[in-house]
Structures are given as C-alpha cells and as structure tokens.
C-alpha cells in the first residue's frame, strides 16, 4: 500500500510536469552522450598511441650529393662513414635500446617513394640518387629515442637523425584537444541537467504544496514526502541516460565499426563493442546518481522553507 501510494504520487508528478520532464530527458541524453563519446575518444587515443608509437622508427639519413644540411657538404656518405654508424648501432651503449634496424639503399628508398607518392605528378622527376640512404631503427622503448639522436647526429656522413614520433605528436595533441572540448561541453550540460532537475522538483513540490501540507499534518515523515520527488528526477534521468547509452552503442556499432571499418583500410586498433558495453552502464549510473543527488537536495531545501 505504501509503495503503491508513492508510485501514484510519482506518476502524478510526471504528468503535471511533462514538458519539464522531457527537457530533463533531452539534456541528460545529450550531455551523457558527450561524456560517453569523450571517454571512448580517450580510449581510442590511448590505443592509437600504443599502436603507432610502438611502430614509430628513428631514421638515420645519410648525406647525398645534393645535401648541405647536418654534417653534409655536397658529398655522398662513404662506406666507411656508413660502417661507423652501423658500428655505433651495434655498440653496447645503443644495442640494449634497439629492437632491430635495417639499411635502406637508394633503390629501396626510390621504390618506397614511388609507392607512397605514385599519384604525385612530380614523382617521375625523382631519381634514386636524389633520395637518402638510411638506417631505420626500431627501439624497444620509443621514448628513449633522444639517446639515439644524440649519439648519431654528430657523426660524419649523417644528414639528420629523425624520430618519427615527432610527426605523431601534433595529431594526438589535436585529438586530445577535441576530447577535452567534448568533456567541457558535457560538463556544462551536466550542470544544466542538474539545475534543471532541481528546478523541476521544486516546481512539482510547489504545485502540490496543499497536498504536502496535509501529509505533514497527518504525520508523514520527511523521507516519505521526499521519495516521490526524488524518484521523479531519477526516472527522467534514467530515461535520458539509457538513451545516451544506446546512442554510444549505436555510434560504435554503426559508425566506428561499420562506416569507418569499411571506409578506412587500416590495421590500427579501434574501440569496439566491448569498450562501449563498459561505458554504457557507467553513463546510466552517472545519470541516476546525479539526478538522485540533485532532486534530494532540491526537495530537502524546499521542505525546510
């Protein structure tokens, strides 16, 4: 009987404030969708960093006849100079840092260039001798590339020692900025959702002030009076957070795995349904907790007035 009465009050409250309840649902849905997207984006960035940073190489470029930068003076690196670099790579100081390395001659560099820039109209004008010979080095720990750069960049015949991770950092910085922007927008919208829930509960309580007065006169406890209002906020937020969880699952299933998976030919690890299934319940719990806390504070302050 007591449970039935509470649920009856909840139903009455939701019917009296339909427009406000719909607003709470929509704001909760949008804000938590942003939160879920930001979480998945951070997860994706982490996976991409692990994938690409492990494969990023350090390139030791040798001088060519047209090189004037680094230790070059318009002279091709000699075999002796190349041998000195290889000896340095095999030395105890660097060998412990290196996973593997391989030498790329002019012809191999030319073939790779033609493969990568086959659609470039200027590719036909490039000759093998114009491209640098190089050692491509994979490190056990890519973060220790500075030791390799410092040891090899001053050797004769070396034009430049380039860490490929430097090309990746701006990309990940942009992705992190996008993620932080999404988190900021989500945070603002969550604040709006909390305030909207509190306003909805206070309006609902005001519209039933005569009923609340009668309940107090007959000895109803504050907990009994507060429970229907808290449940109203929780139910509205639960619907919105459930929709947000569904949206996150749909984004991963149909956009990330469906559209991107079929459009982009890449072996890069991407977030999957397992990640989405972890995020979805987090969004639901977050929405319910925020709604319960906001509604509880709002009705408690109203009853004290």
From TrEMBL:
Signal peptide: none annotated. The chain crosses the membrane at residues 21-41, 177-201, 229-256, 276-299. The keyword Ribonucleoprotein does not apply. One of its GO terms (biological process) is cell division. InterPro entries: ABC3_permease_C, FtsX, FtsX_actino, FtsX_ECD. Gene3D superfamilies: 3.30.70.3040. It holds the Pfam family FtsX. Its main location: membrane. It is found in: Cell membrane. Residues 57-161 form the FtsX extracellular domain. The keyword Cell membrane applies. It is a multi-pass membrane protein. Keywords: Cell cycle, Cell division, Cell membrane, Membrane, Transmembrane, Transmembrane helix. Residues 184-304 form the ABC3 transporter permease C-terminal domain. GO terms for cellular component: plasma membrane. Part of the ABC transporter FtsEX involved in cellular division. NCBIfam families: FtsX_actino. Forms a membrane-associated complex with FtsE. Belongs to the ABC-4 integral membrane protein family. FtsX subfamily. This is Cell division protein FtsX.
């Amino acid at each position: 009987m007591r449970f039935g009465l509470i649920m009856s009050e909840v139903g009455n409250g939701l019917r009296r404030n339909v427009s406000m309840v719909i607003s709470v649902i929509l704001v909760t849905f949008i804000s938590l969708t942003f939160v879920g997207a930001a979480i998945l984006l951070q997860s994706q960035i982490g996976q991409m960093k692990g994938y690409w940073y492990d494969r990023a190489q350090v390139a030791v470029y040798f001088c060519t006849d047209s090189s004037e930068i680094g230790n070059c003076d318009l002279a091709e690196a000699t075999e002796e100079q190349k041998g000195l670099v290889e000896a340095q790579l095999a030395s105890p100081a660097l060998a412990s840092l290196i996973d593997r390395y391989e030498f790329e001659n002019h012809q191999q560099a030319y073939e790779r260039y033609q493969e990568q820039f086959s659609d470039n109209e200027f590719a036909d004008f490039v000759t093998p001798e114009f491209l640098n010979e190089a050692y491509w080095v994979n490190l056990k720990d890519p973060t220790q590339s500075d030791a390799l750069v410092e040891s090899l960049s001053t050797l004769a015949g070396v034009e430049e020692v380039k860490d490929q991770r430097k090309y990746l950092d701006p990309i990940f910085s942009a992705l992190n900025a996008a993620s932080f922007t999404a988190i900021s927008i989500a945070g603002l919208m969550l604040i709006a959702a909390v305030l909207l829930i509190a306003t909805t509960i206070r309006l609902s309580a005001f519209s039933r002030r005569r009923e609340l007065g009668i309940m107090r006169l007959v000895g109803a406890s504050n907990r009994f009076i507060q429970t229907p209002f808290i449940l109203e906020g929780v139910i509205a937020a639960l619907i919105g957070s459930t929709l947000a969880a569904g949206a996150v699952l749909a984004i991963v299933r149909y956009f990330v795995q469906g559209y991107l998976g079929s459009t982009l030919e890449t072996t890069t690890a991407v977030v999957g349904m397992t990640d989405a299934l972890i995020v979805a319940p987090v969004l639901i719990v977050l929405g319910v907790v925020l709604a319960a806390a906001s509604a509880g504070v709002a009705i408690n302050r109203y009853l004290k007035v």
